[in-house]
Amino acid sequence: MAASTTPKPKPADAGNPARVALAGLQLPLPLAVAFSGGADSTVLLLAAAERWPGAVRAIHVHHGLQDAADDFEIHCRGVCAAIKVPLDVRRVTARNAPGESPEDAARGARYQALARAARDGGAQAVLLGQHADDQVETLLLALSRGAGLPGLAAMAPVFQRDGVLFVRPLLALSAQAIREWVAQQGVPVVEDPTNSDIAFTRNRIRHLLLPALEEAFPQYRETFARSSRHAAQAQELLETVAVEDLARMGGVPAITALQQLPRSRQGNVLRHWLKVAHSASASAAQLEELLEQVADCKTRGHQIRIKVGNGFVERQGERLAYSMEPRTPS
User: Which domain holds residue 310?
Assistant: First the structure.
């Protein structure tokens, strides 16, 4: 059975590790908690319901990706009824686009559903249950993929998405602290059966790498989190520089102005422009090719057309443009 039996959940008490994490938070009310029924979101929901009585609702996203999904929903309904917290269940169908993993598609669909439910219910913020171990897993995944600073910054504690404020208040808590409290209190939670499947990279990190890190570097959660904060600060600085550089070009990359910048700064402003103006992301190889073409652009007749994301970066006069439409034959 994916879900444990459901005795009445006990209210959060001083032992609930999430209670301390929420104690100093000043958030706009009402708010919602993303509630999967797992240990992490359960301790968060119990603590939030106690911290802001009558101002908290739960949102459960039903992906339909596994047989146990219906059981998860039933469990969540039982928990929310027991603690008198309104529950909004959203069903999504996540279809991955070409080049997108099913996991990324499901994650995107989940955030869209959470944001939509928050807006529909009048919630001013959504609390997420990711904890310190999740943060380490995210950093190690980024390292395994050769990610840059945005990936190494891992998960932001606060961010906006689809017009909704999301907050991750448990990033300083370990999974062990959460699960020990749940076990001691006999709090019912669901166990996602896919979490033990080491065919998934994140699960290999969780079950194989994290125990080794715990043995070799017991403080790894704190030190890795510090490294991610440094990366986030450096990325924020790069974003500031990119905004200033692009503004001096009039908001669209100008070839002559780009050529006057150091190559690393050219790449920085181009990444920023693609992301902010076109929601596109260039691979390392695509960006290098684009920088080479910009460097070679010494005559008016030099053409640029490079595939980036789902579109193309092209030269239009003295500027670069991005188009989702294929260029028609001349």
Answer: 249-323
